[in-house]
Specification:
0% strand, Proton glutamate symport protein, 420 residues, single chain, mainly alpha
């Protein structure tokens, strides 16, 4: 029964019980059931608002400290700088691919309008009208004239731009002053993580209360729609995992059989632990001993990749948002998708190292807001994050090892012999 101690399992069970209780109440509770469940559901709303209140300060804190971390890593040598360049290119490819793949997935397997309407009613979040901005308006809004106002109004993309400029500006300060500012911002982020952890202790209760309302108004059809979401999100992570194998075979030129032999134990560990950090020792050992990666490359690139590179984060996080858009019948414009990709990249780097439940909220909510989507479904989707999270870890591990092998095969720049 040890698995019952897992918060993810507890939240999943709470969702299932909440949905079931809501369905039973709708069938047998009589006219008084909606009023009673409405009062209980308010507890879930309180829990959701407690999560929301940490999003803006966490965004600012993790972005500033994440940029400082990436800047420090890039300054350690040309090999690390090349790695950071690869990170940015591959993360962008991951985000763009996800938009195409997941929209195609739902084109082939459309969200059922009746089930979507029921789930919307269960979440009690209105389908907000999205006004697609023209390019000039979008470009002008990138720089917030008042960052505090942007934060108060949930204007996430301008806030991300402000935090990004602040992070790079801090790296230009004298080392002593920069360290003071980074320490203060990092402390703010850590304090917010403590708050989120406190809130997540009550996650089973909050999700159960929200699940009651979903079950009451959405009925059993909600379960099928949530299952469709899990498949869609997991498929995005699975395709990024396949991309890692393709990069290893085509770019790093590792024979497929050798790659499978080298990575199989690491992938098994990733599947079991759902933690890239837990796989790091095995990744270093297998890359060095089985793939012939020089020790200095493996010891530098793999810890750096685990620290600042999560290949599947933009893909799966955008998959979550696209599902929400399909449920609410919202069609983000091309410019909104550009903004969503930028936010996804920033969150993918900035949220590395956060606990799984925390990183889901802090990574997905800003992207949803930047696309003009409500976030009321996220606690329900958090409850079933266990399955997509397996493919997140598998994709991250496969691409970490593939990129390390690629960098080991790349010839160093002229005059850079001996530099790392």
């Amino acid at each position: 029964m040890r698995f019952l101690k897992s918060l993810s399992v507890q939240v999943l069970l709470a969702l299932a019980l909440g949905l079931l209780a809501g369905v039973v109440a709708a069938a047998y509770g009589g006219p008084a059931a909606p009023a009673v469940i409405g009062q209980v559901e308010a507890v879930g709303g309180l829990w959701l608002n407690a999560l929301r209140m940490t999003v803006v300060p966490l965004i600012f804190a993790v972005l500033v400290t994440g940029i400082a971390q990436v800047s420090d890593a890039a300054a350690t040598g040309r090999l690390a700088l090349r790695a950071v360049g690869w990170f940015l290119v591959l993360l962008t490819c991951s985000a763009v691919f996800s938009i195409l793949w997941v929209n195609g997935f739902y084109a082939l397997w459309p969200v059922d309008p009746v089930a979507a309407a029921a789930l919307r009613a269960g979440a009690q979040a209105p389908a907000t009208a999205v006004v697609a901005p023209d390019f000039g308006t979008w470009l002008k809004a990138l720089a917030p004239s008042n960052p505090l106002k942007a934060a108060a109004e949930d204007q996430i993309l301008p806030l991300v731009v402000f935090a990004t400029f602040t992070g790079f500006a801090i790296t230009r300060l004298p080392e002593a002053r920069a360290k003071v500012l980074v320490d203060v911002v990092q402390a703010l982020g850590e304090a917010m993580i403590v708050v989120v952890r406190w809130v997540l202790v009550a996650a089973p209760i909050g999700v159960f209360c929200l699940g009651l309302g979903v079950g009451l108004r959405a009925g059993a059809g909600a379960a099928g729609l949530i299952g469709q979401y899990v498949i869609g999100a997991a498929s995005a992570g699975a395709m990024i995992t396949v991309l890692g194998y393709v990069l290893a075979v085509t770019v790093a030129r590792v024979p497929l059989r050798r790659w499978l032999q080298a990575t199989s134990p690491v992938m098994a560990t990733a599947f079991a632990t759902q933690s890239s950090l837990a796989c790091l020792p095995a990744m270093i050992e297998r890359s060095r001993d089985e793939l012939g990666v020089p020790e200095r490359v493996a010891n530098l690139i793999l810890p750096l990749a685990v620290a600042v590179f999560r290949m599947t984060s933009p893909a799966v996080n955008l998959a979550v948002c696209i599902f929400v858009a399909k449920v609410y019948g919202i069609h983000p414009s091309a410019m909104q998708y550009v903004g969503g990709v930028l936010v996804a990249l920033a969150m993918g780097i900035g949220s590395v190292g956060l606990p799984g439940q925390v990183s889901f909220i802090i990574s997905v909510a800003p992207i949803c807001v930047s696309l003009g989507l409500p976030i009321d479904l996220l606690p329900i989707l958090l409850a079933v994050e266990v399955a997509p999270d397996i493919f997140r870890t598998l994709g991250n591990v496969a691409n970490d090892m593939a990129l390390t092998t690629i960098l080991a095969r790349e010839p160093p720049p002229r005059g850079a012999a001996g530099q790392a």
